[in-house]
Amino acid sequence: MMPEAALQTVLIAMLGGAIRVSTPYLFVALGETITEKSGRINLGLEGNLVLGAMVAYALSFHTGLPWLGVAGAFAAGLVLGLLHGTICSLPKVNDIAVGIALMSFGIGIAFFFGKPYIQPQAPRLEGLALGEWSSNPALRQALQINPLFFLGLVIAVALWWALANTRPGLILRMTGDSEPSARAMGVNPVRVRILATVLGGGLAGIGGSFLSLSYPGSWNEGLSSGQGLMAVALVIFARWNPLRCVWAALLFGAAGALGPALQSVGISQGYYFFNAAPYILTLFIMVASARSGVAAHAAPGELSIVK
Question: Among 81, 103, 150, 233, which is disulfide-ready with 198 (CB 3.0 to 4.6 Å)?
Answer without folding.
Answer: 81
